[in-house]
## 1
Amino acid sequence: MRYVSTRGEAPDLGFADVLLAGLAPDGGLYVPAEWPELPVGSISGLPYPAAAARLMAPFVGDDLDDATLARLCDESYATFRHPAVTPLVQVDHHHWLLELFHGPTLAFKDVALQLVGRLFDHVLGERDRHVTIVGATSGDTGSAAIDGVAGCEHLDIVILYPAGRTSEVQRRQMTTVDSPNVHTVAVDGTFDDCQDLVKAMFADAGFRERLNLSAVNSINWARVMAQVVYYVTASTALAGPVTFCVPTGNFGNVLAGWIARRCGAPIADFVVASNRNDILTRFVAGGDMSTRDVVPTLSPSMDIQVSSNFERLLFEMNGRDGGMTAEQLRRFRSTGRLDVEADQRREWIEGSFRAARVDDDETLEEIARVHAETGMLIDPHTATGVGAARRLGGAHPIVTTATAHPAKFPDAVERATGVRPALPDHLADLFERPERTVSLPNDLAAVQTFVASVSRTPHTP
Ligand SMILES: *Cc1c(COP(=O)(O)O)cnc(C)c1O
């Protein structure tokens, strides 16, 4: 299996190199050179980890042997607290939730990052290499990335977060991990300041090379690949075709669903749910892909305006022409508006994607409604999906991806229902655990000095 860049100017690579590279050197994202046919019919009756290994094998190719891939899947999904790993739960006669939040940090990002951490450690070990992962987080991604790599021998991770601007649960999920390769930094600044510091560290070529800087952000192909699995297991369990409704930020999760369908899963179409940050809804519903300012909502992990993974769909829409995709994105960056031809929309969007925007009031109403009707508590991200699914659900059974555990966003859930969701047992003592973090000014030199001081990547000071 070979991978090509969506911007057409990078050499093609195998799976392990794509995993370690993240972003392609031409600024594009890696996609398989050809979409494989997945063994969709062969997974019935298999436990989730075994199904995952079988479904991902065509994407991994010869870079990992089957036994290693199966072992890494077993280890990754043993960290989940439900025997089905991603259970389907029925909400009404034709609406299901696909619960993706039973992993260690209570958000769907665990499904991918538990595996990606282990893949990194395995490949780096084989190559006798060591990397330093740096990242910025506003909450969910940082804790999932930390949990996915904690204890790994061949990598260190340093996560920057804006001091005082994450929820206490989110901060403690990062700062209470006691592992010699995990480091967190409270930056005196905003999330954007943290992201700028990370970008500046990558832009400093000397620093980047000295410490073998790496990233595990949402554009990494291996994260998308790991998410393809639950679209296949859920749609085949329900003997599809089904509609999936996906609460969306970076478009990574819904793109994984599109790939599952492209590679043979019985999926009819997708409903994209957004909150007030609705660039994707405006695009799908009316062809308007133009950026606006990000507004804070009750579903902060969807407070995004530029959905980085959309580039992979755009590449398909352009007939896999990397030059055309790169040019389109250049124009988007300079004008804030992405222009897509009417016939491209008809071919690629209509019939495949529908979209709805669900604001905070409606999010609270959906949390209350689901609680009143079923007794279940759902988180605000999931609630945007449930609202969109109720509005746009059609002929097929509809499955909404439940992307976070309600206890991760207890304030909104309590406001809607009067019930404060309890943390699961493994986190019940989160507020008693000691925190390990350092506070630094919003200053590149100070952050670089810290990263170099904790990195175990062999380097000269
Ligand atoms: C990251 C996240 C999302 C958005 O997922 P994308 O893949 O970025 O579209 C939705 N809900 C929760 C809880 C998340 O953490």
## 2
Amino acid sequence: MHPISKAIRTQVDRTNEMEHSQPLFLTSSFCFDNADDMRAAFADETEDNIYSRFSNPNVQEFVDRMCALEGAEAGFATASGMSAIFASFMTFLKQGDHLLSCRSIFGSTHTVITKYLPKYGISHSYVDAADVSSWEQYITPNTKMIYLETPTNPGLDIIDLKAASALAKKHGLLLNVDNCFATPIAQRPIDFGADLVIHSATKWLDGQGRVLGGIILGKKELIQELYLFCRSTGPSLSPFNAWILSRSLETLEVRMDRHASNALFLAEALEGHARLNWVKYPLLASHPQYAIACEQMTNGGGVVCFELKGGIESGRKFLNALTMLSLTANLGDTRSIASHPASTTHAKLSEAERNAVGISAGLIRISVGLENKKDILADILQALDKC
Ligand SMILES: *Cc1c(COP(=O)(O)O)cnc(C)c1O
């Protein structure tokens, strides 16, 4: 079966097959008929559910569907994207280890790597996303993992997954990829050699701004190790959020197709605008890594970035002039969202620090929604006239 069909049709086996949609299993624990069955479950001789911190039918349905979409053997779902990322670090890194990470990564991931991992003796080197050939010089005998996002947030740099995977294999490192921006509809990192794939399900996977969630996917042996860590430390996804996310996945492909076509339309229409220095979108021919994007992505995703000529003040004016787009910290929603990192999420950084992570004063990030593409463009054009 095609991965999309499999993801839509997959449900967890259960005794009562009356419901067409998977019912909710809002229960913290599960009962056993007798002491023998219970002993066998605890001895890992069966796959029976024991306790929802370990497993739950709704959570398993979400995991199975994500495995189908990403071409993964196994997965573990978590309460948020950040808990997935943190669990992957805590499971596979130990005191004395070194992590190689691309410099432009999600803000909270940056905080975990720079502020918290050093507390446990785990060091890191940040490398330039655009140039994988420059990474090898940072690898030490203690390096254990390469961590990356592609496309990066918010710079939309594209990292060559095949090259990163070849480097990881050569040095026996785990390649850990945050695939949040692309979604498995646009890009399947495991096909290019990634060992672990992470998602913030909060973004495009739900796509409707309702729940937080995360997931880590990969080979069975790796996920088993991760599962044992998570089952004892408790970052597990709630059954209700898993139920929501499984329903969301049934429309993921149709939503992403439209998000991406709206985004490409917007990027093409804005390119060359008099008030902008540049427009960036992975599948715009002017993107510096356009060739790599074409090789590893089947669509460019739903995020478009551009730089206002007027800098910080222009950014504020632009946001204030928007009449339809939402101003909110999220992305990956049916409704289009505009954000200006320099005056909001990254306002505490100095200009030099912002530039180092690819955030210039005039950078605007648009999470392109499912409204009619002409309405999205019209709102942005009228706001550009006022800044
Ligand atoms: C939002 C986001 C995360 C964190 O996910 P949460 O669900 O908010 O914890 C991680 N990586 C990327 C690329 C994100 O956009």
